[in-house]
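Q: I'm writing up a methods section and want to include an example of the input and output format. Could you take the sequence below and give the corresponding predicted structure tokens, formatted cleanly so I can copy it straight into the document?
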Amino acid sequence: MLMRRILMVFISILATSSVFAQPKTVKGTVTDAETGQGLPGVNVIVSGTTNGTTTDINGEFSIELANSENSLSFTFVGYKTITEPVGDRTVINVKLETDTQILDDVVIVGYGTQRKTDLTGSISSLRGSDLTKIPSPNPTQALQGKVAGVQVTNASGAPGSQPIVRIRGVGTFNNASPIYVVDGVILDDISFLSSNDIQSMDVLKDASATAIYGSRGANGVIIVTTKQGKKGESAPVINFTTEYSIQNQQKKIDLLNGKEYATIRNEITPTYNNVDLVPNTDWQDQIFTTAAIQNYQLSASGSSDKIQYYVGVGYFKQDGIIPKSSYERLTIRLNNIYQLSKSIRFGNNITFAPYRQQNTNGNVVFTAYRALPVIPVYLPDGSYSPVPNVGNPLADIEYTNSYGSGLRTVGNMYGEADFLNAFTFKSSFGIDMVNNKGKSFTPVFFVSPQQQNSLSTLNKDWGERLSWLWENTLNYTKESGKHRINALAGYTMQEATSENVALQGRNITRDSEDFWYINSNNLYPYATDINSVDANQNYSIESILFRANYTYDNRFLFTATFRRDGSSKFAKDNRYGNFPSFAAGWNVINESFMQGISFLSNLKVRGSWGIIGNEKINYLRRYSVVDNNVNAVFGAAEGIVPGLTYGVTGNSNLKWESTYQTDIGLETGFLNDKLTLEIDYYNRTTKDILIDLSVPGYLGN
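A: Here is the clean output for your methods example:
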């Protein structure tokens, strides 16, 4: 009997122990606090352990906890981390709120985003609000003085002219300009964009950052992200901005006035009897004037459960400080995201930009600097005075009539699908289409034997260019405990074509613009390049790309990138080029021995090596070309006969230009990143040290 009681007590103790040791299953759903939609891929970790799971496409999760485990941590990129005690609960529903500070620390990289702390490459970011502080027709002009290693210069002061951008100097032969990626569409310029439509610009500088663009990344990459409607904006958000600026000649070139010129001239050859009576013409004052810049922007954005939208309409006009020069552009921007389900999205980003411009004589500034100051502008009868050697600058302006107009359409449509918690597939098709036309008219005039036109001339031209880009990428993102992995694979195709038509008419009936047309009576039969193509805009490219990022414990960073490009610009044996890169980084700030240093908010050491390429040559360079723009006079009638001759020798052995880059960088942040310092040792064609000192909220770096 006693033994039976002891056995019963022992069995009950075992049963009780097994009940207390039995694991508990906790289920629930994680949603966005603003929209209420389920969030897939949220990390659900048992506090104090590496045990965890992720939410499915509906935001649902299920996890088992041991008896001693009584707390869950919910983390997701761009959202505030929440820790929930479990207690007796078996169902836990969590709403995650957006963490704006974390979102500010996410930067745009090639074909995706990445935490700034995880970057191993040299990337500088600029907010859209910084771009609008300086009125300019081209957003790239606003980069000047704001990003270390980026040089922006203006080759011409004409309204609408393209600035020259160099990222860390000249890295290749031929064209050394960077490429631009606007919402995924690869372009050569962004002159069609309004700065008010831009959310951010990210400048990729070294091989670790640019190698994902392979053949076109040798001179750097500028990624432009335009504005989108924000989730939670159920009511439309309307913005209207207006700017009006005055521009004038900033500084005059110090030239001799009439008396000074006459004095020096007399020292060489006695010419003027009384230097006090010679005319005094300041040709700079004659050609330069004050001009206005106008900029207006109206936008509306918002969202619902199924759509996010942004609509922007902008008008920009710049009058030149030289008469008969101007540029105006209308920009219409349409950005939409359609949420078909919790895991499938479609979207579009489209810009329509019609423009018009008027160009003055391109040599008028050069002429004004060389024109003699002792010659008056007009003769007593009111006609223009002859100016020896260079001609009368005001006559150049008067008799130049040049106009251009066109329509630039840039945009893409894309679809995204999330599946298996960690994968995202995206397919995007983008276009860059340009249609333009121009006309110029020179009437009959006579100022001097060297400045005259005996037969009125009318030139007209039409051009079109189309480039399309189809990209397909698969992204894998996984975070487990101290490990964070992001991998990307993709396949892309691109093709560009162009065509230009130009005609010339002579001896036009009248000077009035109503008669600026070409017909069989005035068509000049020997005009060259009547129908042609732009050899720089006819090519096709096929690419495969891979990238892997690995972060351990927010301290150690590794990145490997590979891209293989094939271009129709090269012969079959040299068509493909391989462009790898490798990079590593160490977030020293996250080490335990750094925790007591309160004034230091960031300290990172990084290094990278890679090969990036260049194929910016025209597609005819591998062929020997016959020049058909040669005319000769033959026969008793001495008539002009069109002729052909051997032109340029081709090279079938042309292949990719490869640029090897090494970058070693140190990043520091002080006082909660209110002051940042970035030092880079950069080795490409030269060995350079770049220092970027930035104070957020102030212009310039």
